[in-house]
Amino acid sequence: MKLTIIGTGYVGLATGACFAEVGHHVMCVDNDAAKVEILRAGGIPIYEPGLDELVRKNAAAGRLNFTASTEAGVEQSDVVFIAVPTPPLADGSVDLSFIEKVAREIAGAMTRYKVVVDKSTVPVRTGDKVTETIKRYCKARVDFDVVSNPEFLREGFAVEDLMKPDRVVIGVRSQRPVPIIKEVYAPFHAPLIVTDINSAELIKHASNSFLALKISYINAISVICEATGANVQEVANGIGMDDRIGRRFLNASLGFGGSCFPKDLSAFIKIAEQLGYDFGLLKEVQRINADQMNRFVKKITDTLWVLKDKTIGVLGLAFKQNTDDVRMSPAIELCLQLQKEGARLRVHDPKAMERAKAVLKDATFVGDMNEVAEGCDALVIATEWEEFKKLDLERVRKALSHPILFDGRNLFDPAEMERLGFIYKSIGR
Ligand code: UGA
């Protein structure tokens, strides 16, 4: 099929590449001409495992193309996906101006029936607004259908999640676009659920809020574990074996971050408020998350006492493993708090150093994870990168002025760390 995707951010680019990989002909549109040039030259503006290879391969095969012209993109396809950013506004609500602008542009370029599919995360009822807008701005007065098709990919695992989705959600107002969207997704062999548009939009916010709730729940349990000497990982294993609960997203941490959970929680709380419902449960999820960071910083200051003139090593800057994304990263937030307390920082991340440099000033960026501890008073693990598990612990122990390690991601076994001579403080264990 011929498909157009507007917006080449994480979702748009990864989706476009995966659609091309299964044989569709995909045109990716971005209004940033410089970005389009980079993509055309075979460059990838983000780090996402496996994506560069997929983009290069499908571009070479002629199935993946890039343009800065929405008009050209809309003209060549019958199905147009919107995958532009929906950033947060200062009051927690969502900035829908990019969606609105793209809806107008699509409307202006339409000369025959189109299925306009919204993939961006949007508040419930946005589909209605997009429909109204297209109707208003479509001079050619042609038929169209608006479809909501929320995306559930995780950064760092985008290709895997897109190629093997656990479900595809399609929200529609009429049956006409259903077979078309089914054909788009047929090569993925995923379970498909067809709903009304409002339900599809809600599924996305309700999913992300629930996952964030799961993390805050286990983080709250971690506080009880610390107060009683229990082990949060064992508790998570025990409750996670119940199929109704599941083990995933029950890893206690210094809190969740990223460009989705914090934003989607605020948005969902705001949407509920506008609908007359006080979503206190989700406010508590936010509160627990903020508290988890404060508790971790306190753990560090309780142990090291005064941070002024001390040097702390921090491993991990990205908001999670397998990505270079530092947006709303708990690791960056931690670094800033430690700096505020007067600490000097030596930091490392396998992929996020460049992006971190823009938001983290006056830190020493160290290229090798095993060198970070040199001359430090303590080492902190802030992101769950798998490779940190392969840290040369003997070298780290010797390099630290005192062998203190704070693990905000529970990567190591406490008993083993003690045996190796560390003062080891993790989360809920
Ligand atoms: C999240 C959702 O998982 C995706 O399904 C969704 O499509 C995406 O948002 C989106 O809305 O676009 P993502 O933000 O890429 O994906 O990352 P996650 O893997 O969900 O991690 C989010 C945060 O939670 C990270 O800071 C991570 O370290 C933290 N986390 C995750 C925990 O602290 N504990 C866990 O058990 C799991």
Provide an overview of this structure.
The chain has 429 residues and is an alpha/beta fold. 44% of the residues lie in helices and 14% in strands. It has 16 helices and 14 strands. It has helices at residues 10-21, 33-40, 51-60, 70-76, 97-109, 126-137, 158-163, 178-185, 197-228, 232-240, 261-274, 280-304, 330-340, 353-359, 393-399, 414-419, and strands spanning 2-6, 25-29, 64-67, 79-82, 114-118, 144-148, 168-172, 192-196, 311-315, 344-348, 364-365, 378-381, 404-407, 423-425. A 6-stranded parallel beta sheet has the order 3-2-1-4-5-6, with helices on both faces. A 6-stranded parallel beta sheet has the order 11-10-9-12-13-14. A two-stranded parallel ribbon has the order 7-8. Helix 9 crosses helix 11 (261-274) and helix 9 (197-228) runs parallel beside helix 12 (280-304). The longest helix is centred in the middle third of the chain and has 32 residues, at 197-228. The model has no long low-confidence stretch (mean pLDDT 97). Bound molecules: uridine-5'-diphosphate-glucuronic acid. Uridine-5'-diphosphate-glucuronic acid is lined by residues 121, 151-155, 208, 211, 215, 249-251, 253, 256-258, 260-261, 319-320, 330, 384.
